[in-house]
Design a protein that fits this description.
Nucleoside Triphosphate Pyrophosphohydrolase, 5-stranded mixed β-sheet, alpha+beta, about 40% strand, 2 domains, about 25% helix, homodimer
């Protein structure tokens, strides 16, 4: 258990730095990436301008899924990622939560759309903020067990990807990144796999 | 070692999905968050519009630092994060790489600015893309050893934070998040701490 001194110190700072009020002063919504700009006042009386990224006019909430097949293989996707070095990346299936959709439904939908696989059981790991300074987006991680091929994949416009089955050890190797060419660099995929591993080993 | 079939399949997909050419078609640069919009053509002949977030007119490259003091404590910061639930967050020190600065220099600078601590030794863990679909930003993680208080902190305009020393087990508890109020949700802090832990345990 965390000691009382630390808890007390954190509580005091949290109280003084909490948002007292915020006011939307402008927004930019054109195409996929947009932003909202707020004037924020904290409990300590200080004010600042705070910009928040939006995606498709939403906060950008998303899911990442670790799909495990009946015979223990992991399903990963190889996706076009024009922004980053190499421009193609290995990741777990993932995608944004649709308006009005809950996270678990989004996880099952994205798994089916991106791979054509469906799970017999799905459970939630942890969640995280992808970019806590500049975005409201929360990412939830799911483990999908008993996955089997149900249908062909069904991609969104502009999405270009293929799926591939591999072993747990293959992924560990890709996370370690001993190879310069084949490496998992995607934050959400790394968090998902590391949390899964730390829980499996009883550390988390 | 990954088997040859998987390596070969990945290589083929990577080849077909690589960017063949891209053309900047517009950009938006006002305030902190901006974007660039590209028309991208892949090797398979398909084209798409690809938007890329910019921060302060840069790619948004950044560092996250795990500072460990001479007596084995970890230094964390409690920062105003108006965008996310709670609006105050526990994180490791972190910040953007300045124009022309290298990552390691940025790590030392951010550590000093945000906490007033300096390290006797600093080493790099892994790196990751914070938002591989929408950003070029690469985040490098550093472990800073032998940290001691050197000066008062020296924050950027609008930055509101305090630092706090705690034990490894305290952070593990905050990552596990058994407490609803005190929890580390920041992607970069989670990746840093989980990689540090997996390496310490000999798993990565």
């Amino acid at each position: 258990m965390m000691n009382a001194y630390i808890k007390d110190k954190i509580a005091k700072v949290v109280k003084s730095l909490k948002v007292k009020s915020s006011e939307l002063i402008s927004s930019y919504e054109e195409g996929y990436i947009g932003k909202k700009v707020y004037r924020v006042t904290l409990n300590d009386g200080s004010t600042r301008i705070c910009e928040q990224i939006t995606k498709n006019k939403s906060n950008g909430d998303a899911v990442v899924i670790i799909p495990i097949t009946l015979d223990g293989n992991f399903v990963m996707i190889i996706e076009s990622r024009p922004n980053t070095l190499g421009t193609v990346a290995l990741e777990f299936p993932a995608g944004m939560v649709d308006k009005g959709e809950n996270f678990e439904t989004a996880a099952k939908r994205e798994l089916l759309e991106e791979t054509g696989y469906a799970a017999t059981e799905i459970y939630e790991l942890e969640s995280h903020y992808q970019d806590q300074g500049c975005s409201k987006a929360i990412i939830k991680t799911y483990v999908a067990l008993g996955c089997r091929k149900l249908q062909e994949k069904n991609l969104d416009d502009g999405e270009r990807l293929e799926y591939i089955e591999m072993s747990y050890d293959d992924i560990l190797e890709l996370i370690k990144g001993d190879s310069k060419e084949l490496k998992i660099n995607d934050a959400n995929s790394k968090i998902a796999f590391m949390e899964y591993t730390l829980k499996k080993k009883g550390i988390l």
